[in-house]
Structures are given as structure tokens and as C-alpha cells.
Specification:
Blueprint: H1 7-12, H2 14-29, E1 31-32, H3 42-48, E2 59-60, E3 63-64, H4 72-87, E4 91-93, H5 99-110, E5 116-120, H6 136-140, E6 142-146, H7 157-167, E7 171-174, H8 185-195, E8 198-202, H9 207-211, E9 224-228, E10 239-243, H10 248-259, H11 265-278, H12 281-303, E11 307-308, E12 317-321, H13 329-338, E13 341-342, E14 344-346, E15 360-364, H14 366-371, H15 378-393, H16 397-411
Parallel strand pairs: 1-13, 5-6, 5-7, 7-8, 8-9
Antiparallel strand pairs: 2-3, 4-10, 9-10, 11-12, 12-15, 14-15
The structure holds D-serine (DSN).
D-serine binds at residues 36, 99, 127, 177.
Length: 424
Amino acid sequence: MHQPPLPDLTRNDPEVATLIEAEARRQFETIRLIPSENYVSTAVLEACSSVLTNKYSEGYPGKRYYEGQQVIDPIEELAIERAKALFGVEHVNVQPYSGSPANLAIYLAFASPGDTIMSVELAHGGHLTHGSPVSITGKWFRPVHYHVRRDTGRIDLDQARDLARAERPKLIFCGGTALPRTIDFPAFAEIAREVGAILVADISHIAGLIAGGAHPSPVGYADVISTTTHKTLRGPRGAMLMSTAEHATALDKAVFPGLQGGPHNHTTAGIAVALREASLPDFRRYAHQTVANAKALAAALIERGYDLVSGGTDNHLILIDLTRQEIGGKPAAKALDRAGIELNFNTVPYDPRKPWNPSGIRLGTPAVTTRGLTEEQMPQIAAWIDEAIQAARKDDEATLTRIRGEVRELLAAYPMPGWAPTPA
Ligand code: DSN
């Protein structure tokens, strides 16, 4: 049963209630390895489904365009203050609706259409909003990309430096969505300083690890820090922009009125709750356990003959090149889903295949760590992944179904916030 329960929804709109129950149950019974997903606490769920969704609040605390902000202002201020304390930054904007609008606000604040920007290429672990040709950021700006090295699978800092010197970009992005190794913020800061660029650290994937002390912080190196709030940080779907006081006005104006209207106050409250949770000692343990689990899972996969991009991981994320297994990322991901193991197909650096059916799969440990799984269970997960991939190659649905049952059995012992079996 969904937690908190949904009695009115079940009475008034059973169609929607049934679908929500089904999704909650699916999340309970599945090994969720998509590295950008997690389980929020029931406290976050309660804040996000509150009456705060009824209120319009264009503007910022103390300077709104609608009346009735007596309660909304302190909620947004609380979220801001908690983020400032957690990350040690001077300025925070908690209003971006999600990661893409947050990054767009950075372009609006510091660049003009046609300006050169620099980032790691999408196929090498970047993000659509870091100048991909299919994104507005690639259509309206002039992206140049650095890569990961073919021999190490790690960011080629020499190439990034040479490219920055040659192209003099306005913005330099570091961070991305499929980078299993530690981001070298001091090195990027040095490059950005040398060419007079604004350095943007997109820490969406690793924000929770940074908050929990399991990854170095970009504070003091990046001019602007962009992050979603729902990945390792374990908050609701949303985003934040952080900076020094110097860039506060430009960023705030870009978010509102530059790009957005009223902030989603229910989400702001959920972010405030998640930020408090992330400041507690338990969250430090969570962040370190997430990395320990990823390393254990990586080691078990390598032992089974899997080819990990960069040879392993420093964080929560693993990128596997399945070329050696002679199966595409897409059929592998689909078979694993049928086996109760959820991850996503993904391009790998220098991928000869197309993004719609690339060579790799991407996985990570933020969600399973929230469930309470530790290094002890990682070899079993690696064994199931391996068995399911072998089964997919032979169209062996019976094995996938058997694994699905075993997965369900294991997870029954690990509670999730948001759903619990109905007591008998
Ligand atoms: N969709 C996110 C991810 O999965 O990494 C990035 O926006």
C-alpha cells in the first residue's frame, strides 16, 4: 500500500490511484539501478503533496508579485539557508523546475546566442543541455567539446586545456550524466581562469555524495554550481543554482523573470526537507555506502568479464561496454527490466552504434543503498545481471522470470519509503 495512503484518491479516481499503487509496488519489487533515481522519504512525499501547490509566488522572498506570501517566504528562505549551510555557498536559488531549466538560466545569465561554450561531449558522459546539437543549447550557442581519453576512459584535461585556449569559451561546463570518475574541479578552475571563462560545475549526479563528504566539492573552484535535487541528494524532482554573491543577481534574474513563472512551492518545501535530511549524520553514512556499493558492484562485474568504462568507478555510477558480450545496450536493458533489474541503455565513449541502440548500459547504486543493501548483496546483483544478459542472448525468458522472482524475494526484506506490503 502506498505510504502515505491514498484513501480519497482511491475513492474519487480509482484509475489514477490504481496506477500509483502499481508504480509504488513496482519500485518495491525492482532492483532500481538507474543512477539518477532514488527513493525520497515519506516526509518529502508529504511536503510535496501539500496545499503549497495551491499558491502562486512569482518573485523571491520579500519581493513577490502576489499577496499572501506570509508562509511561502519562510519556506523558501528555509530551503535556501539549508542549502547554503549544507554546501557552504554564498548564494542559492531553489526555484528552477529541474536540471535543464537550471542550466538554461546559466546561459541566459552569462552568454548570448552564438557565444562559444565548452563541455564534455554527450556521448562521452555530458548532458543534453551542455550544448548537444539536438538541444536549444546546441542550436543557439556554439559548443566545443572535450572528451574522455580512449586509453583510460577518463576526462582528457590536456585536450580540455588546449581547446579552451584555442576557442576562449564564455562558459565551461564540468560534470555530466555518465562520468564514473571524480571530477577534478581545481584543474577545471585553472583552465577557466586562464581563458577568462565562467566555470559551471553541474553536480546533478553527485550532489548527495558531495553533501555527504564522499566526493570533493566544487565550492571555491566553480563560479556557478548547478544541481538537480532528486538524484543522490534524495530530494523531490527539482533543481538549485548555487554561486558566490557576485553572481547572485544575474542568476536570480535569469530564473525569474528570465525563464520561469511561479516557483513550485510544494517542491521547494520538499527540497527543504531533503536538505535537512542530507545534513544529518545518517546521510554521510548513506553517501559513503553508495560509493562502497558501486565499487563492490563494479568489482563483481569486472570479475565476470564485463568491460567497465575507465575500468571502474569512484562514485555511484558504472558504465558498461557490452561489446564483448555481443549484445546491444537496448536489448540488454530490456531483458534486465523483465528480470526485475532496472537500468538504462547508454552510449559509451567512441561508440560505433547509435544512441537509440548503443553499446552500453549505465547503472548505479543510489536507490539500492537507500533500500539498505550493502557490499554483501552486490556480487549477487552482478550475478543476476550476468545471468540475465546471457539469457537475453538466447531468448531464454524462463531464466528472466526466475531471476525476477529471486529479486522480489531479496527485496522483500528491505523496506522502501512510499510503499509497504498491506498487513495480512
Ligand atoms: N536524465 C538524467 C540522467 O538520467 O542522468 C540527466 O538529465
